[in-house]
Design a protein that fits this description.
Elements (H helix, E strand, L loop, with lengths): L1 E7 L6 H13 L5 E7 L10 E4 L30 E5 L3 E3 L4 H5 L4 E5 L9 E9 L4 H9 L1 H7 L3 H12 L3 E3 L5 E3 H5 L19 E3 L6 H6 L13 H6 L2
Parallel strand pairs: 1-2, 1-4, 2-3, 6-8, 9-10
Antiparallel strand pairs: 4-7, 5-10, 6-7
């Protein structure tokens, strides 16, 4: 059984984002699989998706919009699942088979952050973990969240540095599997008004961190001053 999990809280993402992710997963995975969303609002989520309450994570109210809640995936009892689970962010585009993500060696697998290739820093848009095996990472955070957040800027830095320092079997996905839309697909900013973002033919997943989001890329809209881009039809071919 392949376990796939995602999270939705607050109003940054919608039920439709969950439904779209499920559609992409179902088209790109060999059954059997379970797909679960941990959320504070399950309304509007399609019936094929298991919904569960968000795991308890001691995130201060003023930082609830940040990704620290993702540490809840390491709770010992994660929706009654067993074995390995693949976590996926809601703002990714899947364009090839997810099966290799369940076969890659390593007890914990994650993207090597493209912005810090010289450092031990992961990008937590796509990671695979053994359910219940990393509860100590969550416990350490919950003991003193303010201290952890003062020492580590975000949850993916805390997670990957903690695993690395402990000697845990953490490995990175092959670089071509997960690419950044902004870094690997967008043309130079001076050419962006004239050349559409390219489709990365070897990538299995395209990650949309920050803006633009997939729907913005499809329309050719990038929020922000002096941000220009052409519409990106290939995103619409996969993101539905």
């Amino acid at each position: 059984m392949k376990n796939v999990v995602c999270m939705k809280w607050g109003d940054a993402y919608t039920a439709q984002d969950v439904n779209t992710l499920y559609g992409m997963v179902a088209r790109n995975i060999t059954p059997p699989f379970r797909f679960a969303c941990f959320t504070d609002d399950a309304s509007g989520i399609r019936d094929e998706v298991e919904t569960h309450p968000l795991p308890e994570v001691n995130v201060p109210a003023h930082r609830m919009h940040e990704a620290w809640r993702k540490l809840g995936t390491f709770t010992p009892d994660l929706g009654g699942m067993e074995g390995d689970a693949l976590f996926l962010d809601l703002d990714i585009v899947i364009r090839d088979s997810l099966d290799p993500f369940f076969e890659h060696p390593g007890d914990f697998c994650i993207i090597h952050n493209w912005t810090h290739p010289d450092r031990v820093v992961g990008n937590s848009s796509v990671y695979r973990f053994k359910i219940g095996d990393l509860s100590w990472v969550l416990d350490r955070y919950n003991e003193d969240p303010e201290k952890v957040m003062a020492e580590r800027r975000n949850e993916q830095i805390y997670l990957t540095e903690t695993l690395h320092e402990s000697g845990y079997n953490m490995v990175y996905w092959p670089a071509e599997w997960c690419v950044s839309f902004k870094k690997h697909c967008m043309p130079h900013r001076l050419l962006a008004p004239f050349i559409a973002p390219r489709e990365p033919k070897d990538a299995k997943i395209v990650v949309f961190h920050g803006h633009p989001k997939p729907d913005e890329a499809i329309r050719g809209e990038w929020k922000g001053k002096w941000k220009w881009m052409r519409p990106t039809p290939w995103v619409a071919e996969h993101w539905h």
